[in-house]
């Protein structure tokens, strides 16, 4: 298990690195085929490929699904500085926690089920190659909904929490860009003819920040701003990147219209604004099926002496939203436990990869309780 974990982490697979992502998927394809799976690869030109696998398609009961992604947020070259390393019971390296450790856990849960002669129901796997960028250049979200349909349960092995929290709900995510074009001018010789794109974008930024509605569960964040060239020229270009988190899918038209209205409002005459983007993840709803599956996980946790997990709703988006949309009871954050994901200090608790593999296998063995 540790060797596979090391090999997956040491193969870089940042979301922009299609070649690296596809190599990781090829390693996993080989592993699953050795376990008797029929594996299909959905190929994309501008995104990492998506892997679909199934063991025992002729079994009569409803399939169980393991899902996740193999892309990371880290740039090429990171592995040279921070290769997979185990130190003081923690595993480090780009994507060790988010979420290559979770992939290893469910792959070995499958291996254990096979070794134990499990044959009650098909086992299915869905692994995206572009989750971290919200499937911007693929139809992976639609594939998840289609392929998950009919499954009895889905275990999304995203980043686990050190306090044993299991995610039963997630907010949706919207990503938007606003770009402003102004008029450049020399601020000493010709200041009156300049039209500042930065001043325009600053007005828009402040207007966007006022849109947050905590009661409705919709929040706005302008996380990136850029523009200008030198201090003695009126800036003729500026751009902001906006992140929106929302609890209810019906909020999408409302906040999109709010942003469009701000984009259409001109604060500095002579400037023009364009807006692009949209919702990249829908919310993961906490359905009755989700609650029942969490209760099963909680029971199996206790039976194995792993403690008592708590249910949690978080703001981060994930593909668990799409398995719920497909009508499948789903729990998320079933991967290895750790913290500081998406940062150079990202770590995973080594012991949790073994614990989670056992937990996942035992949950599958007890799905008839649902």
TrEMBL record:
Required co-factor(s) are: Zn(2+)
Q: Which residues are responsible for catalysis?
A: 71, 131 (proton acceptor)
Q: Which UniProt keywords apply?
A: Hydrolase, Metal-binding, Zinc
Q: Name one GO molecular function term.
A: hydrolase activity
| Entry-linked InterPro entries | ArgE/DapE_CS, Bact_exopeptidase_dim_dom, Pept_M20_glutamate_carboxypep, Peptidase_M20, Peptidase_M20_dimer, Peptidase_M20A
Name all Peptidase M20 dimerisation domain ranges.
168-270
**Protein name in the entry:** Peptidase dimerization protein
């Amino acid at each position: 298990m540790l060797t596979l974990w090391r090999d997956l982490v040491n193969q870089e697979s940042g979301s922009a690195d299609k070649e690296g992502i596809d190599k990781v998927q090829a390693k996993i394809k080989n592993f699953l085929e050795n376990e008797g799976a029929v594996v299909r690869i959905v190929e994309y030109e501008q995104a990492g490929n998506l892997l679909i696998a199934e063991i025992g398609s002729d079994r009569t009961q409803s399939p169980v699904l393991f899902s996740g992604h193999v892309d990371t947020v880290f740039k090429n070259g990171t592995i040279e500085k921070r290769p997979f390393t185990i130190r003081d019971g923690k595993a480090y390296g780009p994507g060790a926690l988010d979420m290559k450790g979770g992939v290893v856990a469910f792959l070995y849960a499958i291996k254990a089920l096979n070794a134990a002669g499990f044959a009650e129901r098909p086992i299915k796997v869905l692994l995206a190659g572009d989750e971290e960028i919200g499937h911007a250049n693929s139809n992976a979200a639609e594939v998840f909904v289609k392929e998950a349909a009919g499954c009895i349960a889905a275990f999304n092995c995203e980043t686990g929490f050190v306090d044993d929290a299991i995610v039963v709900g997630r907010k949706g995510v919207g990503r938007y860009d606003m770009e402003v074009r102004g008029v450049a001018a020399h601020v000493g010789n010709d200041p009156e003819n300049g039209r500042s794109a930065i001043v325009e974008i600053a007005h828009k930024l402040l207007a966007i920040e006022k849109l947050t509605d905590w009661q409705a569960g919709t929040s706005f964040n302008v996380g990136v701003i850029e523009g200008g060239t030198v201090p003695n020229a009126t800036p003729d270009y500026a751009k902001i990147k906006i992140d929106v988190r929302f609890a209810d899918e019906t909020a999408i038209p409302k906040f999109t219209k709010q942003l469009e209205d701000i984009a259409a409002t001109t604060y500095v005459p002579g400037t023009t604004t364009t807006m692009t983007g949209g919702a990249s993840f829908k919310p993961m709803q906490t359905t009755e099926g989700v609650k029942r599956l969490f209760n099963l996980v909680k029971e199996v946790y206790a039976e194995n002496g792993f403690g008592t997990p708590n249910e949690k709703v978080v703001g981060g988006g994930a593909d668990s939203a799409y398995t719920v949309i497909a009508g499948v009871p789903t729990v998320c954050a079933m991967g290895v436990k750790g913290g500081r994901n998406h940062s150079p200090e990202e770590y995973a608790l080594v012991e949790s990869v073994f614990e989670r593999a056992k937990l996942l296998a035992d949950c599958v063995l007890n799905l008839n309780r649902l």
